[in-house]
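Q: I'm writing up a methods section and want to include an example of the input and output format. Could you take the sequence below and give the corresponding predicted structure tokens, formatted cleanly so I can copy it straight into the document?
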Amino acid sequence: MKIKIKLLKRVSKRTKKGFPIIVYASDNYRDKEWRTGYFSEEAFWNSQFATPNRKHPNYYQLLDYLNPLKRRIEEAILESTRRPISFEEAKSLIFNVHKDSFYESAMRSFSENFRGTEWSAIKRFDKFYPYSSFDNVSKEIAFAFRDRLLKEGNKPSGVDSYIRSLKALWNRLSDKPNPFKGVVTQIPDTVKTVASDNDLKKLIEANFHRQDGFSGFYHYRNYWLLMFYLGGIDPEVLSKLRYDRNLITGRIVFNRNKGNSKTNCNNIVPKLALEIMEIYKENSNPYFVPIHKANNYKTFSGNFSRRMRELSRKLRLSVELRPKSARYTFIDRAQQLLIDERITAQIVGHKRKTTTSIYTNDFPLQLQDKAHLNIIDFLK
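A: Here is the clean output for your methods example:
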């Protein structure tokens, strides 16, 4: 039996959403067509690989649906080589999602555009252990997954975050014993690089010629300072900030969405930040900075980190800064100034887990803003 995913490009089948995406099966000169419920324009579809291209309006959602569907098609084809199977049996194998599937249950639990750590963790676990169910994932498999990630060179903190996310997913979706419980990742102590007042002055006063594009010392220095001025925001947050979505009545409002915190931030935009934002402001472009122009954010992030280390040596700073150092520096300055850590947490988007925080409201924005401006004022 031959089975494949294809676009049904008959003129009579065309809809406002495009052509139907179907599963086509043929065997002994007979064939069957089963609709998936998804559609695509021909220009948004790669016929060779039976996948949508990035121009498809539901690109990620469609990929999440098609990838497990392809695996079940492969299973049905393999089963047909062992014994004759009917079209109805093939259809059942392909479209009947296992109710006890850990992966499928997790993916169904996410909202359409969710791409947080839990989503990344279950996608990565599915590559390591396909067809996982709430019956076949053992503690040995959980340990093996952790060890594989570490062997591949992933940071222990990132591996720990994945394991904790999978444990949380399992607890939310099943009452069965959690195989990820007790799977601990040893995280070595690290020295977080923090810029001194003198380092900050050198960064600001450095005379770099403005460069075209979005990379180079001039731009990386600007991005770093902007992250610091805006409240120690993460590089990935900076890359997504837009005037039309995140700038509201003179404040940046965004969901940090780091790990499982999904913490909302509402920060003042200091004058120092506005001066940098004005450099990149374009009427035709809604983003604060042009990082979005990078074809691959992971590559950009690596270049950002490497060039910041080079810049640190070039300016003879006291430490080799990384992009993340802007956040560390903001938090460290708050500690040095003895600012209430709950106010700092409110600015930087750390989820507060203390018992006291359960019974207290957020600090007034006026108090938060005063602390924020005090932290970035290092010219005392």
